[in-house]
């Protein structure tokens, strides 16, 4: 069987350089080979030792293999429904490469949820003083909506929707979570409010109490 040797090196090993590390690894492999050879000799007394063969049958056509030896694979061919809202909560920061063309046009959006990709956002959507004072917004939560993700790019393309406020505060954090999951938390419309009792204070009538189970 294949053997993986995990070596740990400290600062003293680093001072000897890479050659010293390779020598240590080679010595470990030689020692392991000698130990294995001795075990084979000990097990081979009284006859010729035969190494155990792999359990996988040797066949040329993979279709003839039993199902337990096959790794099933699949391919996404169509998206029926987009479950994610494409909105994410995160922070904005300047790009690392100051000499690139993107540095003058875009900023980097880093989502709090690591399942969501990082995205380029236009500097025009960022606060006006962000390019000059990015440290002022290092702890500010933003909502970004992902609009595109090209196949040849490591980062998606997003559009900043709004600034939520300081990270760690209850209201901005709550609003960010509700927005990410597509929960409508806007005020009720006048049509909905008109369905409520208008004569206040409202009390439950005795007739309703008589036919309902009180769970208060």
From TrEMBL:
<dbReference type="InterPro" id="IPR050180">
    <property type="entry name" value="RNR_Ribonuclease"/>
</dbReference>
<dbReference type="GO" id="GO:0006402">
    <property type="term" value="P:mRNA catabolic process"/>
</dbReference>
<keyword id="KW-0540">Nuclease</keyword>
<keyword id="KW-0269">Exonuclease</keyword>
<keyword id="KW-0378">Hydrolase</keyword>
<keyword id="KW-0460">Magnesium</keyword>
<dbReference type="GO" id="GO:0010587">
    <property type="term" value="P:miRNA catabolic process"/>
</dbReference>
<dbReference type="GO" id="GO:0000175">
    <property type="term" value="F:3'-5'-RNA exonuclease activity"/>
</dbReference>
<keyword id="KW-0694">RNA-binding</keyword>
<feature type="domain" description="CSD2">
    <location>
        <begin position="107"/>
        <end position="182"/>
    </location>
</feature>
<dbReference type="InterPro" id="IPR041505">
    <property type="entry name" value="Dis3_CSD2"/>
</dbReference>
<dbReference type="GO" id="GO:0000932">
    <property type="term" value="C:P-body"/>
</dbReference>
<dbReference type="GO" id="GO:0046872">
    <property type="term" value="F:metal ion binding"/>
</dbReference>
<keyword id="KW-0479">Metal-binding</keyword>
<dbReference type="InterPro" id="IPR012340">
    <property type="entry name" value="NA-bd_OB-fold"/>
</dbReference>
<keyword id="KW-0963">Cytoplasm</keyword>
<protein>
    <submittedName>
        <fullName>DI3L2 exonuclease</fullName>
    </submittedName>
</protein>
<dbReference type="GO" id="GO:0008266">
    <property type="term" value="F:poly(U) RNA binding"/>
</dbReference>
<dbReference type="Pfam" id="PF17849">
    <property type="entry name" value="OB_Dis3"/>
</dbReference>
């Amino acid at each position: 069987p294949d053997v993986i040797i995990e070596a740990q090196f400290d600062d003293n090993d680093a001072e000897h350089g890479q050659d010293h590390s390779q020598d240590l690894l080679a010595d470990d492999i030689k020692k392991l080979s000698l130990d294995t050879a001795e075990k084979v000799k000990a097990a081979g007394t009284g006859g010729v030792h035969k190494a155990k063969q792999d359990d996988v049958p040797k066949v040329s056509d993979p279709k003839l293999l039993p199902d337990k030896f096959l790794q099933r694979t699949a391919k996404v061919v169509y998206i029926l429904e987009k479950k994610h809202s494409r909105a994410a909560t995160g922070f904005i920061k300047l790009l690392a490469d100051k000499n690139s063309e993107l540095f003058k046009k875009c900023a980097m959006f880093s989502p709090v949820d690591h399942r969501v990709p990082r995205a380029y956002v236009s500097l025009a959507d960022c606060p006006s003083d962000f390019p000059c004072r990015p440290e002022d917004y290092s702890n500010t939560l933003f909502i970004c909506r992902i609009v595109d993700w090209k196949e040849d790019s490591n980062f998606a393309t997003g559009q900043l929707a709004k600034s939520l406020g300081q990270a760690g505060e209850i209201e901005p954090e709550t609003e960010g979570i509700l927005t990410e999951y597509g929960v409508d938390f806007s005020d009720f419309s006048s049509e909905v409010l008109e369905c409520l009792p208008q004569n206040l204070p409202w009390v439950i009538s005795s007739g309703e109490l008589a036919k309902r189970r009180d769970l208060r």
